[in-house]
Amino acid sequence: MYDGPVLDNHLHLDPVNGRGVEAAAEFADAGGTHLNVLNKPSWDLVGEVDGADGFQEAFEMTVEVTREADELLDGRARPVLGVHPGLVSRLVDRGYAPEEAADLMRTGIDVAAEFVADGPALAVKSGRPHYDVDEAVWEASNAVMRHAFERGAEVGCAVQLHTEGGEDFATVAEWAEDAGLPRERVVKHYADGRIEGPIPSVICDKDELERASDGDWPFLMETDFIDDPDRPGAVFGPKTVPRRTKWLAERGYETALRRAHVETPARVYGVDTEATLA
């Protein structure tokens, strides 16, 4: 049986509207040891944002709730901060031109990168809409994502991506490399078991987890728990990664679990999940 670290690579804790640190306690009680905590969209935490101060406030909330979660775990909880790609649509609906919206979102990425450079944050989040948008919005969103790659390269951190579905993101990985960020430091959040280009952060669907575990490529596991009181189990609840880890171990996937919870976090983020276990 697998008895090493258990990392949920993408989980939200909402200290304003949701359960916040209580969800992290549930994760720990189920056997989870490490969390990468993503900030909720800025509009969920602080309302409409028009400048750096709004992003700063939202990120500080996430850093604080992650610090509280860290105290409950046998391992570590670390914040991953950035700008939800859906913000572009909210800004355009408010009257921003797509490029003006992109400028503001780049400001948010810059603030997130400062949190990495100054120490509290592990990585940056960016991406592009997972729904249909017009060409101008799509191009603006890609420009924001490429800016995130540039900032990730500058501060030496990984970039998590929220994007449309699919399996071919080779071009995105090439954009990262063009910006000086190795493709192995680009993570596709809510991924299938295998994708081309970035590292897949595999959503806790059993079939996709088995697909990743049957291969030999690096991967991570995630719930994308959104901490919304109106949708208490969405996308998966906080207990799911520990439970799926046990389920995979029972099927003989100890080597794959070590890849997901030890080797890939070291490769992508430069963290030692074994050394940080209590």
Give a brief description.
The protein is an alpha/beta fold and 278 residues long.
Question: Key features?
Answer:
278 residues; alpha/beta; TIM Barrel; eight-stranded parallel beta sheet; 10 helices; 45% helix
What can you see in these coordinates?
With 278 residues, the protein is of the alpha/beta class. The protein contains ten helices and eight strands. Helix 8 links the parallel strand 7 and strand 8. Strands 1-2-3-4-5-6-7-8 form an eight-stranded parallel β-sheet. The longest helix is centred in the middle third of the chain and has 21 residues. 45% of the residues lie in helices and 14% in strands. It has a single domain, classed as Alpha-Beta Barrel (TIM Barrel).
Number of H- or I-type helical stretches? 10
Helix/sheet category: alpha/beta
CATH architecture: Alpha-Beta Barrel
Number of strands: 8
| Global mean pLDDT | 97
Q: Layout of helices and strands, plus pairs?
A:
Elements (H helix, E strand, L loop, with lengths): L6 E6 L8 H9 L4 E5 L3 H4 L6 H19 L6 E6 L4 H7 L4 H21 L4 E5 L7 H21 L3 E4 L7 H9 L7 E6 L7 E5 L2 H9 L5 E3 L17 H11 L3 H16 L9
Parallel strand pairs: 1-2, 2-3, 3-4, 4-5, 5-6, 6-7, 7-8
